[in-house]
Design brief:
By secondary structure, the protein is mostly beta strands. It has no helices and 7 strands.
Amino acid sequence: MDRSCKILQEESNALSDYAEIDLRNDRAICHLESVLTSHHVEEALRDGVRLRSKVTVEEQEYLLQNVTYEPVTFVVEHALPDDWKVDSDPQPVKVVDNTAFFRVNAEPGQIVRLHVGERYRDPMADAD
């Protein structure tokens, strides 16, 4: 799966029995819920100096359904914008360049949720 729930079938044979069906954008298998953006200011003291940053957090929840008769492992490839960091629970199994990889196991017919958050910190000039 990519960030927009497009199924990357060429990298998986788990859906080989369904090859005659175009599953690349099948909302029964994957869709996004709770796509949210929030902003806040964070402060920290470092060596007696107050540091302030504007922080943007973007979150989305993948809703994944195993439509096969076998257990599957979904691999979600979540591309991060430049200078953004993963802010998720669970953490990805790995991050390569700007792509976070999450693994989600699902039994036949099971629907599972994966929460993925990302954050960007923009340091602010101190007004003092």
